[in-house]
Amino acid sequence: MNGEPDAAITTPDADQAGLYERLIADLDGAGARYRLIDHPPEGRTEMVSALRGNDVAQAAKCLIVMVKIGKRQTRYVLAVVPGDARLDLRAVKELLAGTYAAFAGRDKAEELAGSPSGTVLPFSYHPKLEIIADPALLQAPELFFNAARLDRSIALRTDDYLRLAAPRLAPITA
Fold first, then answer.
1. Which residues, including other chains, have CB under 8 Å from residue 52's CB and lie 6 or more apart?
2. 137 pLDDT above the threshold of 50
3. Partners of 34 in the β-ladder
4. CB-CB contact of 173 with 136 (8 Å)
5. Angle CA(137)–CA(145)–CA(168) in degrees, nearest 5?
6. Which pLDDT value is given to residue 4?
7. Residues 54, 154 contacting (CB under 8 angstroms)
8. Which three-class secondary structure state does DSSP give residue 102?
């Protein structure tokens, strides 16, 4: 890509590059209003928010949650919450009428998200991953998130996020 740093640490691997390209193509194809923000590689919400210059509350923190429904069924949720909030696992469990909820293991989370921890998108490209967003996330006009890579973020208009991701809205923060 033009204008990108050459350092190996900032070069996404092939899968990440594919997910990044797919996201950009989807945003462009839907006429979404967004900005790209290059920054040093960082996946922690508080740290990357400082690098991007956004309030932590405007960051879309994306967490993969496993919810057991009885003994035989497991569902996975992409929980999207403001960067300054804590996910309430009990709220997610109750929302899905589950018997148990926990953060998905790193390998499973990365498999479902299609990207490494710290780069999880607030969009789902996996059929078994349902998006639930906390309404508090929607208070700002723009959402900020890593763009399936550690060295580039996206500032996306909140109304475009709602239109494109079509998340289930429910209070899921503590």
1. 37, 39, 144, 153, 155
2. yes
3. 156
4. yes
5. 40
6. 35
7. no
8. strand
Q: Domains plus CATH for the chain?
A: 8-169 (3.90.960.10)
Reduce the DSSP state of residue 81 to 3 states and report it.
strand
pTM above 0.70, yes or no: yes
| Residue whose structure tokens are 């809205």 | 169
The CA-atom distances, in angstroms, between 108 and each of 44, 51, 75, 76 are 19, 28, 12, 10
CA atoms within 13 A on the CB side of 56: 9
Tell me which amino acid residue 77 is. Answer: V
Q: How far is the C-alpha of 57 from the C-alpha of 38, rounded, in Å?
A: 20
Tens-digit pLDDT profile for residues 76-104: 999 999 999 999 999 999 999 999 999 99
Letter string b/e over residues 35-66, b meaning 16 or more CB atoms within 10 A of that residue's CB: eebebebbeebeebbeebebebebbbbbbbbb
